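F.,

This is the one I mentioned.
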């Protein structure tokens, strides 16, 4: 699933490749189930003729600002991505929604699993209003994060995956951040020591910024894997320290990385660097 760095890469590409200021000349919906709360005719009618005035990321969502009281909010879910198909109508497999821009290019949405969601709303807060703070926002200080964690009697990994707690983290970057901070994923959030919190926040920001610099993480070459707007794979896989590295030596201590399941999610840890908490521990 695309996480914060992958979504930010797409947003940066959309801006760099001249999408802002383009008028939408035509919209084609080939798989209506991707639309949340809007029928395909209404969706196409409302977007046709709109000018793209802004594009930003909020958590794992892409927020497109169109005309007054008109926003398109997109969640890529497991396998969704966009690409430019040039001036000819794209014929690629698994293309389900198409936007023709005023310059003749087609912006195609491709999704093999068809789990993505498109929300056409008058206020983006309708969709993203319940998201937690952005992890790269300077307003998320260590003291604020500490107060947030102290109230939570949940294991730290599923808590970090909760988009209402912090927005944008998924399985890859959560595993990487917890390793970076030497925190076991089963640790109760409220049991984190005072010096754990700033280290965790620094680790989260470090792995996210690395992912953005490397233009996302792609873990294979199939259509289910992340690719940017020019259909190129992200370069961050080679920088991962623990994710999908079970059986390989920890880059920090040499102990073999182990795989476990936490909250029904595949999880990767160094058993030496990330000490497992006492199973009877309580806050």
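My design for it:
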């Amino acid at each position: 699933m695309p996480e914060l760095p992958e979504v930010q890469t797409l947003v940066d590409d959309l801006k760099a490749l001249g999408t802002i200021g383009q008028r939408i000349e035509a919209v084609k919906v080939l798989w209506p189930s991707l639309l949340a709360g809007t029928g395909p005719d209404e969706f196409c009618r409302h977007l046709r003729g709109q000018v793209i005035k802004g594009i930003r990321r909020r958590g794992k969502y892409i927020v497109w600002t169109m005309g007054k009281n008109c926003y398109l909010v997109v969640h890529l879910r497991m396998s969704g991505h966009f690409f430019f198909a040039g001036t000819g109508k794209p014929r690629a497999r698994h293309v389900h929604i198409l936007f023709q821009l005023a310059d003749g290019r087609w912006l195609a949405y491709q999704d093999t699993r068809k789990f993505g969601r498109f929300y056409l709303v008058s206020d983006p807060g309708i969709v993203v209003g319940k998201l937690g703070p952005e992890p790269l926002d300077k307003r998320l200080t260590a003291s604020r994060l500490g107060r947030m964690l102290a109230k939570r009697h949940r294991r730290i990994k599923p808590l970090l995956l909760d988009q209402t707690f912090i927005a944008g983290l998924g399985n890859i970057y959560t595993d990487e951040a917890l390793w970076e901070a030497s925190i076991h994923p089963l640790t109760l959030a409220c049991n984190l020591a005072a010096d754990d919190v700033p280290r965790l926040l620094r680790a989260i920001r470090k792995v996210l910024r690395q992912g953005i610099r490397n233009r996302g993480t792609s873990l294979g070459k199939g259509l289910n894997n992340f690719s940017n707007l020019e259909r190129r794979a992200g370069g961050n896989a080679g920088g991962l320290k623990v994710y999908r590295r079970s059986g390989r030596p920890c880059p920090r201590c040499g102990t073999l990385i182990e795989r476990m399941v936490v909250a029904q999610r595949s999880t990767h840890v160094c058993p030496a660097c990330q000490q497992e908490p006492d199973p009877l521990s309580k806050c």
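The chain has a mean pLDDT of 95.

Talk soon.
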